[in-house]
Each structure stands twice: as structure tokens, then as C-alpha cells.
């Protein structure tokens, strides 16, 4: 690993250079933004694996010189060590080849690294991981710089966490091996069913956030996990691509496997699918740049699904054409406003008294008060008026996501890849007709009446 640096085409950005001395542990003196290291990154191609093998050998050599082992490492422990090296190198490579300048957040805490809960299952972290980071940052290897964070105390303000960044020597090594971004991938093998708590507001930052909750497996959670593993395996095999010229930011097309996230500490709430790279694209980007197995795509949307689910919850078949068109209000001016207010009313406990901040400047008529619009919505949707402002939004999400999971499994049974964006599914154009029929069938199965299916 002591070969001289080579010229390289990749931007160095703001990465720290390899130190000539040995300050492996640079103290934190100001808060900085980090991106969490991804435990599911790995080398994909032969050149990338050869690079990882070479680095792994260097780590073993460093260990034998600096802290010789008294006993031979067990095969399982050696495999974990290899995966830790693979994961770290793959993260560093993906970071710098994508032009990302944020340091990678890592943990050196035995409590975190030694966790054996369901969310850490399948990951390669262990309490020995800090020694891997130290080895990769040692002068004779010099592939990363390490900044050690401050001790964490729950009662204090948020503190800086430990982080790593690639050195110039690492970037030169990528060039010497002819390695690019496509030589690495992401193979998620973790828990796809996530249960989160209610959101709580942080006393220091003022930001609302939730935390993952442990849960006991039941027949339902095992079924949910089987369904998501089947969907994720199918997506991992699919040929998904995106025209990167349509985005100023790097789009990581290896982010294809999803998690189903439930909310408020209950499997009755939420359940939407998150994690796919296509979910972060705009409608225009998806329409112009996303391809599935080499084919252009089309996005099909369940029209007005939230109010239709509300009607299904009370056993009433809706008779409206447009749930967001109210008598006496110009639909061209008011429809997007009404839709936004209706959506917010699903998650509130009381009738809103103020216009939501994100639509305040778009409010068409200052003479129409928010209270007036809320009353008009309730009168227009009298059968479900009692459900508005009763915090049923996450129950609606649960029904919506059940429909989507059934739809994705139906499409898979026909050899069709369908990519979900909440109440929308993206398919290759040649599969549009079948997908429309499958969407109608899944909707009828769960709600008992026909949906409106439209192109996004």
C-alpha cells in the first residue's frame, strides 16, 4: 500500500490529504454534517473485489506487525473482518466517485457496534470495527482520515460523531485499478419491516423525529417480512437505469431495496415503502430518464386514493367525480389548495385555524377563511366528515400500502417490475395495460369498489 500516488481524474473536493505524521484521531471542534456509513455497500465487479482483497491483505499485515494475535482468527470472524473492509472501501469509493463531500459518520461505541437487535441483524459491524478503521488510517495504509467524535450523553446537546473520509492516496488507488462507480453496489440484507415510535420534538434542535422500536414477531410480521423480501429480491435482479444527465445531483441506482415503515408504535399505522432511488426523482425525471429492463416507463397513479379509503372505512361507495372539487370554488384556482388542506386534516387532532405555511402564499382568496374551507370540505364529504381531524392519516397509509404490496406481488408473478411511489406504480410502457388491470383488482380486493387509475 506504499506505492506513490498516481494522477487521477476524480475530484479531490474537500477531502483531507493523507497525513505524513500520525494524527489518526483529529479532534472535533465544531459541528459538521455527516452522512451515515451504509452497512450494505459491497464490491460488485472483479476489479473492485481485487482492490478489496488487496486492502484486506494489507490490514492483516498491519495487524501482524502492530498487534500480533496469539491465536488464529476463527473463519467466521475472518469473514466478518473481510466484510468490514469491503463495506468501508465500498462506502469510501461510492462517496468520492459520486462527488459527495460529506464525511461518513461511523460509530466507535461498543454499545452500538455490539448491538444484536433485529435492526442490526445481518450487518457486519462488531466491537472490533474501530481497529479496522485505525488500520485503514495508519500511515503505511493511509486510505482514510479519521475524526473521532465526542462522547454521547442523551441529556446534552447533539454532539459531533466520529467520521471518516477518503484520502488522496485512496483516490489514486481507485484510478490505478480503473475503478468506477458501477463497480460497487448495495445489497440490503437487513430488517425490511420497521416499527417507529410517535414523533417527539428535540429540546435542543426543535426538530421532530421518531426512533425505531423493537417488536416481537407474530404471524403478521413474518408475513409482512416474507412479502418485502420477495419484492426486494425481485428488484435486486431488475435492470434499472437512469439518465444521469437529467439530475445535477448523483443518483445512486443501487438503492433499489425497500423497507416498509410503520408508525406510532403500531402495525395498524403507516406501512409505506421507502428506500428506492426512483422515489427521490421528480415526475419529469422519472418520465424522461428512468428505464426498466431497457424500456421506457410510465407512472400510473391511484386518483384521490386518500378520500376513497376514508369512504371505504365507513362502508360507503363514493359518488364524487373529483374529491377535491367543491361547489362554488373555481377548481383551477382551488383544487391544489383543497387537496393540501384535506391531506393535512387527516393528520390533525383539531380543525386547523391557520392556513398551512406551504400554501399560504398560494391562497386564492383572502376573504375565504381556513375555517370556512374546512366546513365546506366536511359538508361536501358528509359521510366521512367525522373522520377529518381525527388523526386517521396513518391508518389510511396502512390501507394504501397494503394495496400497493399486493399489486407489486401480482406484477412480479407475471414477470413485471413495478416500482412504487406511495400511491403510484412505475412500469415499463409495454406493461401498462396489465398494470392498470392489476391496480383495479388490488383496489377492489381491499376497498370493495373501483378506483380511478390515471397516468401521473
Main β-sheet, in a few words?
Answer: 6 strands, antiparallel
Helix content: 25-40%
Please indicate the count of domains. Answer: 3
The assigned structural class equals alpha+beta
How much β-strand is present in the residues?
Answer: 5-15%
How big is the Rg? 26 Å
Enumerate how many helices there are, as a single number.
12
Instruction: Give the overall pLDDT as a whole number.
Output: 90
Written as H for each helix and E for each strand, in order along the chain, the element string is EEEHHEHHEEHEEEEHEEEHEEHHHHEEHE
Description of the molecule:
The protein is an alpha+beta fold. It has helices at residues 46-66, 75-97, 110-113, 129-137, 168-176, 219-237, 283-289, 305-313, 331-345, 370-380, 393-413, 432-447, and strands at residues 26-27, 35-36, 41-43, 104-105, 144-148, 163-166, 184-186, 193-195, 200-201, 208-209, 240-242, 259-262, 270-274, 290-292, 295-302, 419-421, 424-428, 453-455. The protein has 3 domains: 26-186, no CATH class; 193-306 and 393-455, no CATH class; 324-380, no CATH class. Strand 12 and strand 13 form a beta hairpin. The radius of gyration is 26 Å and the shape is elongated. The model is unreliable at 1-30 (pLDDT under 50).
Helix/strand layout:
Elements: E1 26-27, E2 35-36, E3 41-43, H1 46-66, H2 75-97, E4 104-105, H3 110-113, H4 129-137, E5 144-148, E6 163-166, H5 168-176, E7 184-186, E8 193-195, E9 200-201, E10 208-209, H6 219-237, E11 240-242, E12 259-262, E13 270-274, H7 283-289, E14 290-292, E15 295-302, H8 305-313, H9 331-345, H10 370-380, H11 393-413, E16 419-421, E17 424-428, H12 432-447, E18 453-455
Parallel strand pairs: 1-5, 2-4, 8-12
Antiparallel strand pairs: 3-7, 4-6, 5-6, 9-10, 11-14, 12-13, 14-15, 15-17, 15-18, 16-17
Helix pairs in contact: 1-2, 6-11, 8-11, 11-12
